[in-house]
Design a protein that fits this description.
14 helices; seven-stranded mixed beta sheet; alpha/beta; globular; Aspartate Aminotransferase, domain 2; Aspartate Aminotransferase, domain 1
Length: 407
């Protein structure tokens, strides 16, 4: 640090106004803290917290296995959330079912590790995928004994599959990457082409669902996996998949809630497609609270996307002007990553935390893309959410700028 700027003066929090009225549902937030890690998990608005608390304090029972009033109330709430998921994704209930898992990674693995042997010819993914896709496609290809193809993306996120054999292929890719927030271009066309050749497409929508839902809606992939905790809900995974895909799985991860009959050496599975991915007791309260999150989100979606776009440009422009800092993004997005010079990313994240600015540092579960392929050291990632305000962005830019100038 330069002699004129001591760490103590850089870390000192400047006075700021009380929480902005723009924080609809986030009135509990302290004005002293700036949370910029929504790409990991979003904060939860009041109605979601209230819904989960109500479940635990008023009717915290099981669903699916009981006949008493509390259980019926649970079942009604879970069923309503399943319906809301398909509705918000624009997927027809006559062809799709919604299942709940631990997280996106869990959902992707449940699908890939139970694909039937002999049905598919190859697995295709891209170099920029989150580990949840990149690693699970490796193990699935090994189990099935089929080749795995890894392809490039264009600067706009488009995936060019020209020249690749897509006959009976399993294509697994994200709808928005985890590092720069780049939305996959022409995803609907890719899905249609793969399905035309007898293949299936499994979409990792963990980042796209909260930040680009309007562009994801209505894309009829064979499965869409996302995380409720990135969509203003509790910690929970969500899979919306075709009933054909779910019923074709070679179910091997089994337990209560999935079988209708069991003999000494055999069993009969339930007929409901979603049960193929739901072994054992489910997170009933979290599922119901995610329904509250979707209900809260629906009328605010357009405003949130507009606000994120405006704040992202403000953030991108501000970071681009700073010394000793290189943007990894080529354009503004709700997820922006950069490489600081003269200080490691983890150390800078700690400095920012001491000033009340919470950002992520590392390779963001994109180790092949960033560390293996590009040879990059850890980066800093800043990501926006519905709670983010212009005051948050300005404060983050002010503190970061003072730190970078002092290096």
């Amino acid at each position: 640090m330069a002699a004129t700027a001591s760490p103590r003066s850089l870390f000192r929090r400047r006075p700021r106004p009380a929480a902005s009225s723009a924080r609809d549902g986030f009135d509990y937030l302290s004005a002293d803290d700036v949370y910029l890690d929504s790409a990991c998990q979003t904060l939860r608005p009041r109605p979601v917290i209230d819904a989960l608390t109500t479940y635990y304090t008023e009717y915290g029972a099981c669903g699916d296995r009981v006949r008493y009033a509390w259980g019926r109330r649970v079942e009604a709430g879970v069923s309503a959330t399943r319906d809301r998921v398909l509705s918000v994704l624009g997927l027809p209930a006559r062809r799709y079912a919604c299942a709940f898992t631990l997280n996106t990674t869990y959902g992707l693995n449940l699908l890939l590790q139970q694909l039937p042997a002999g049905r598919y010819g190859r697995i295709v993914t891209t170099h920029t995928e989150h580990n949840a896709v990149f690693v699970s496609t490796m193990t699935a290809a090994r189990r099935l004994g089929i080749p795995r193809t890894v392809v490039d993306r264009g600067a706009d996120g488009a995936v060019d599959l020209t020249g690749h054999d897509l006959t009976d292929a399993v294509v697994v890719l994200s709808a928005m990457d985890n590092v720069t927030g780049t939305v996959t271009a022409d995803l609907a066309d890719l899905v249609a082409e793969v399905q035309r050749r007898g293949g299936i497409v499994i979409v990792d929508a963990a980042q796209a669902a909260p930040h680009a839902l309007s562009r994801l809606r209505g894309i009829t992939a064979d499965a869409v996996c996302l995380s409720a905790h990135k969509m203003y809900g509790p910690s929970l995974g969500v899979v919306a998949a075709t009933t054909d895909l779910l019923m074709s799985l070679d179910a091997s991860f089994l337990g209560g809630g999935q079988v209708s009959a069991v003999t000494r050496d055999d069993f009969t599975l339930l007929s409901e497609p979603h049960t193929r991915l739901e072994p054992g007791l489910q997170a009933w309260g979290e599922v119901i609270a995610f329904g509250a999150a979707l209900e809260w989100l629906a009328p605010r979606l357009a405003a949130i996307e507009e606000s994120e776009a405006r704040l992202a440009q403000r953030l991108f422009d501000g970071l681009a002007r700073m010394p000793h800092l290189t943007l990894f993004n080529t354009a503004a997005a709700p997820v922006i990553s950069f490489v600081p010079a003269r200080v490691g990313a983890h150390r800078l994240a700690v400095f920012l935390s001491q000033a009340g600015i919470m950002v992520r540092s590392g390779h963001f579960c994109a180790h092949h893309w960033l560390a293996d392929r590009l040879g990059m050291e850890p980066l800093v990632r800043v990501s926006l959410g519905a709670h983010s305000t212009a005051e948050d962005v300005d404060r983050a830019l002010d503190v970061t700028s003072r730190m970078m100038r002092g290096l």
